[in-house]
Design brief:
Order of helices and strands of chain B: HHHHHHEEHHHHHHHEEHHHHH
Shape of chain B: globular
Number of domains of chain A: 2
Radius of gyration of chain A: 23 Å
Largest interface: A-B, 105 and 128 residues
Oligomer: heterodimer
Largest sheet of chain B: 2 strands, antiparallel
Order of helices and strands of chain A: HHEEHEHHEEH
Low-confidence stretches of chain A: 194-198
Shape of chain A: extended
Low-confidence stretches of chain B: none
Helix content of chain A: 40-55%
Number of strands of chain B: 4
Number of strands of chain A: 5
Chain lengths: 198, 569
């Protein structure tokens, strides 16, 4: 009952549990995962024709220029989409910094893509700062600009967007979403950058 | 809001209970020491373990013995984890070359994981070596949950006993729960998560050259193995700073469903196991019903808040749908899955998040905060949810007994002064730690330096931090920069109070209950399996939590809500 009689089991149990749960379990899961699901276990990395890594299908990146779908605002790292420093803005609804940022982003969106309705995800930062997705409404709003920049028809862009859109799980779980990186990769592959205006 | 969101909320809660039920039946066999299908593999391991511990696995412990073992085990875990974190720079498997943690951060983090809180004052991908994540934090993810489930087993046995002296053996309960329940569940879940996209690698950083010609460094980690036990053990400390909102921890609606089910299923199952072991199946169902009702109402309230509250910033910028709050939410989850997770994680003392509560609308975030303040019993943390709920049930029968002038009974045991004193001691720790520390922090300049938002939301950041710590939850209004001596130290103390100043009175109650004779119900016994009792229990939970915390909430989220309405006019 005394604390001394508990000393041995307390110390021995921590050593044994560390070996089992802290070493054998994670390393065992790693070994099996690498064997069965190497792509996912490695971070769903995407490589170009030469084998160089261009990103992860799960991690958002910054995109600029007229010819690409643009991601959501990001609070990860100083310039956004810093995949070593995930973060949301953590700003409350009455925070003035939030109001200023939303106003600036909404104006930029109007300059780039016209006066049509702007969906919330286009001006509100994600929780992770690394959200790889945008809403289909957000993507639809950008189609005309991308088509013009690449000298192609809006329908051709819409087709690529549709191919990179995922829907509900079982018809009601999660939300429809467009993967920005894979859509932009598909645009570059099908309608190469040579056609894109600088 | 739309029908799909409501369907997702209802479906997920139903699925969680449906999976928790058989798990509970299985766990009751593990608690009882019965044979299971895992015996051929695990029984020999178990025997060797007890030999190494130097204990007699047949020998029960009194409540004091059980409590002493719990404390000794937690202390050993704390010392080991503290040293490991403090000196991770000298240890292997540190590919990014991170420094050792500062003394106050190592203290906070070690307390946090040993108490099953898993508050993160740090950003994992920028602080922790792989060894610290695996051999330090993952281990405590298992064993702190195992310790909670052991205490739950002890209180279940107390109600089954007839003039009993012992509550079982802590070392046996801990070992069996970890080996037979937590480890197998985690292995299966981790592999499912990897298949669905969660990384599991010992590589640290990969460099990508992006399409627009900049370099993106991507942090990787053995994520899935910790993700699985983080959820099953109601731990909540993520590999990455933003926890299950990070696309590596939670890449899709499917992984979200797996993770949110594993967040609550075992806590529901623990109630089922309690019913079996204590011989009170119907009464356990009543406890379960109260939990499901309250967590469902909370999810609905947060969902409504996040989709119906007008937002001044969006309206001013002319956004198409100015009541949909996507700040701090991921597109793949949207408001419904974010609201449901928020309710489940704060009801469960888990504290993992898939959205940023600090950017919720005032009432949505306030509801999450209130769920923590209700005592982490809806359905609560691993084991701690069950024993917290039993304390509430004792208070409910006591109040009912006062009303009708009879000696209260619960599950065939008379509830007398000693039990009620210990129950009150336990439930008063939460307001003491939350309101006491918050009041001091609100007038302490070094504490206020950590706040991001001003006004009522700033106060909410403080209240949320201490509620999260004292409730052993671990989620945050993350605008607060907590990695500073003041916050790390005071939050660490609040976590210790919330864990041990609760669990030890519960064990004392268990000891007193076990020693009483088991009575047959009479005509004068208040049935504790009826809808009336469920209503009474919910009433006690809400009145206790509401009376204690309403004044503080009125100055935080409630006043902010009216400010938001005024600003949108």
């Amino acid at each position: 009952m005394s604390l001394t009689s508990n000393l041995r089991p307390a110390v021995v149990s921590m050593v044994l549990f560390t070996a089992l749960l802290g070493v054998a379990y994670p390393l065992g899961v790693t070994a099996v995962s690498q064997a069965l699901f190497p792509a996912q276990a490695g971070g769903s990395l995407i490589r170009d024709a030469s084998g160089a890594i261009v990103g992860s299908a799960l991690i958002g990146q910054n995109f600029s220029g007229e010819a690409y779908l643009r991601p959501r605002p990001s609070a990860a790292g100083k310039d956004g989409y810093d995949a070593t420093s995930s973060s949301g803005s953590n700003l409350g609804p009455l925070n003035e910094d939030l109001a200023t940022r939303i106003k600036t982003d909404a104006e930029a969106s109007r300059v780039a893509d016209g006066a049509g309705p702007i969906p919330p995800d286009a001006v509100q930062a994600s929780a992770s700062g690394l959200d790889p997705h945008i809403s289909p409404e957000n993507a639809a709003r950008q189609i005309e600009r991308i088509a013009k920049a690449r000298g192609i028809q809006p329908l051709q862009v819409a087709e690529i967007v549709a191919q990179n859109t995922e829907g509900y799980l079982l018809g009601f779980i999660g939300r429809p979403r467009v993967n920005v990186l894979t859509a932009n990769l598909a645009l570059d592959a099908r309608y190469p950058k040579a056609q894109a205006k600088p | 809001m739309d029908w799909r969101g409501w369907a997702e909320i209802v479906f997920t809660i139903a699925l969680t209970v449906a999976i928790g039920w058989p798990l509970g039946l299985f766990m009751s066999r593990v608690w009882a020491g019965d044979r299971t299908w895992l015996d051929p593999v695990l029984r020999p391991v178990e025997r060797l373990t007890y030999a190494a511990f130097g204990i007699d696995s047949k020998k029960g412990q009194t409540w004091l013995g059980y409590a002493a073992a719990l404390i000794a085990f937690s202390a050993a875990g704390f010392v080991m984890l503290y040293l490991q974190l403090r000196f991770q720079n000298l240890l292997p498997l540190n590919p990014q070359g991170f420094d050792g943690l500062s003394p106050h951060l190592a203290f906070n983090t070690a307390v946090s994981f040993v108490t099953n809180t898993n508050w993160q004052s740090y950003g994992g991908e920028a602080t922790m070596s792989h060894l610290s994540q695996m051999a330090g934090l993952t281990v405590q993810n298992f064993v702190s949950a195992g310790a909670g489930l052991a205490v739950a087993a002890a209180i279940a046995r107390a109600f089954a006993a007839d003039r009993g002296e012992t509550l079982g053996n802590f070392w046996v309960d801990l070992t069996r729960v970890v080996l037979y329940v937590l480890l197998p569940l985690s292995i299966v879940t981790a592999l499912a998560l990897v298949a669905a996209g969660v990384p599991q690698t010992l590589l640290a950083n990969v460099e990508a050259a992006t399409l627009v010609g900049v370099k993106q460094v991507i942090s990787l980690a053995p994520t899935a193995s910790q993700e699985a036990i983080k959820q099953w053990g109601t731990n909540g400390g993520g590999i990455f700073n933003v926890n299950s909102a990070h696309p590596f921890e939670n890449p899709s609606p499917l992984t979200n469903l797996i993770e949110v089910v594993s967040l609550n299923a075992l806590a529901f199952g623990t109630v089922v196991a309690f019913g079996r072991v204590a011989g009170a199946r119907k009464e356990a169902r009543a406890l379960l019903a109260a939990m499901v009702i309250l967590v469902g109402v909370a999810a609905a309230a947060i969902y409504a808040s996040e989709t119906l509250t007008p937002q001044p910033a969006l309206a001013a910028a002319g956004i198409s749908n100015p009541t949909a709050n996507m700040e701090g939410k991921e597109v793949r989850f949207g408001p419904a899955a974010s609201a449901l997770w928020a309710a489940q994680t704060t009801g469960a003392s888990n504290g993992s998040v898939n959205s940023m509560h600090g950017s919720f609308m005032p009432l949505g975030g306030g509801m999450a905060l209130f769920m923590i303040q209700l005592g982490e019993i809806l359905p609560g943390g691993a084991g701690s949810g069950l024993y917290g709920m039993v304390v509430m049930a004792l208070l409910a029968v006591f109040v009912a007994g006062l009303m009708v002038g009879r000696t209260p009974e619960y599950l065939g045991k008379k509830v007398e002064a000693r039990e009620i004193k210990f129950a009150m001691l336990a439930v008063l720790i939460l307001p003491l730690a939350i309101l006491g520390f918050s009041a001091v922090a609100a007038v302490t300049p070094v504490a206020l330096e950590g706040l991001l938002n001003k006004g009522p939301r700033g106060l909410t950041e403080i209240l949320y931090a201490y509620s999260s710590a004292a409730g052993n939850n671990g989620s945050a209004y993350a605008g607060l920069t907590a990695n500073a001596p003041w916050w790390n130290t005071t939050l660490g103390i609040a976590m210790l109070l919330g864990r041990f100043a609760y669990a030890i009175p519960v064990l004392a109650i268990a000891g007193a209950i076990a020693a009483k004779p088991k009575l047959a119900p009479t005509a004068g016994t208040l049935p504790s399996d009826s809808p009336l009792f469920v209503g009474l229990l919910i009433g006690i939970i809400l009145i206790l939590g509401g009376l204690q915390f309403f004044p503080a909430l009125a100055l935080g989220p409630i006043v902010e809500h009216f400010q938001v309405l005024a600003a949108s006019r």
